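tool_call predict_complex ligand=adenosine monophosphate
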Amino acid sequence: MTSSFSNLGLSEPLARAVLEMGYETMTPIQEQAIPVVLQGKDVMGAAQTGTGKTAAFALPLLQRMMKHENASTSPARHPVRALVLLPTRELAVQVAQQVELYAKYTNLRSTVVFGGMDMKPQTLELKKGVEVLVATPGRLLDHIEAKNTVLNQVEYVVLDEADRMLDIGFLPDLQRILSYLPKQRITLLFSATFSNEIKRLASSYLQDPVTIEVARSNAAASTVEQHFYSVGADDKRRALHQILKARELRQAFVFVNSKLGCARLARSLEREGLKTTALHGDKSQDERLKALEAFKQGEVDLLVCTDVAARGLDIKDVPAVFNFDVPFNAEDYVHRIGRTGRAGASGLAVSFVASSDQRLVADIEKLINTKVEIEPLEFDDERPRISEQGRINDGRRMYREGAGDEGAMAESRTNEVARPPRERQDRPERRERREHLPHRQAHAPRDPFFDLPYESNAAPGAQPVWEAAGKTVPARSGVSANIKPKKKVAALFKIAG
Ligand code: AMP
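tool_result ok
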């Protein structure tokens, strides 16, 4: 096993780009996945954003595509050969940015398409011809329907953040997209967790995948210092100020559970002198990108966000993540704190636990397999407050709990739960829509696909739902009809070292 990029035998333009990125050693997912992808095998990788998984798939795919590299201006000489599918615009943009950096000294072209934006500029890029297409499923289907791109020469497919794509309800879109692709291809699937749904997806579309797990699938980053403080709702903002000051934190992410709470908290913090931006599903794509950029440039101190809006944000070196609200879903805890302590850097994750959050904390304990200690938080100033147990901390004056933000929070939670899910029609809004749903609900997608047996154990003659309407390729024994066995070829790349 090697941990240096120089031992991979990458072609000079790719090696130069990696050097320029300043990467010295490979991350565990890179160490394990790159050689396997170079050999042309399918991969099922358990890795979260922040582990370096983009380079883990992008570098070997670019390397394999180098044989097609050409400087021709003809679009026909630049067909889509690699398709990378992601659940959100932000993730798609970030992955596309990374791919562009890795490919910058090659003639391989890449672009990104995602919903919520005018299709025209994307169409122009697609029509010029690109080898790597990064996309969110809904918008990609729009482009396919508009015949802006042809996918019959795709050799590589990456289903990135596959668990999230299923959560959001993209499965039917994925099935349609995959049905347009050549069945003989290399498919890579990355997911934070390997749920049964993910395993079933893999068994339908991957061929003898090599399973790579860089850490326990639900493990929280070990480089993150985690604290859970018992803080009454009225004291949360004060606690936030105090910790920011005590730890001399310049920037942080602050997570809340609702859009309403997000906007409200951002306004309050701004009034209290912190440069704050809210990031939630009601913000336009342009506003989100601007907010992100401002944060990256250091013009904003705090990014107050909801889970969906923050999903996959690739901002390096965020020193701290605050869970102003304990997330409704334990998996979101792992995703949230994954924003800090990334790629080897150390980070701080602070959760404010209200008395009503005990059950949510117990869920987190179960998921991360660690006993959580809920610590009391001593305030520096004289201002008295009521503790979570209802005792007055300094015995002088009582603060009434529940009159402030907690009431608002409870209201917004109720709103989220009460709002009924709408029909899935307008694709660009699908992701935002999830913010209206309680997370638990979002994790139990109802789709006929899940009620039908997979092909491998289906009754004789039964068709998978996604094939039922169209033409069906007869399944070979043990191989899904959605994939064709790969040609046996000698390993193209040898890993030295
Ligand atoms: P990803 O998980 O692909 O989103 O990557 C997270 C961050 O880690 C990105 O900003 C990458 O630029 C960075 N990164 C990826 N690979 C390495 C590496 N080998 N060494 C240092 N940083 C890396």
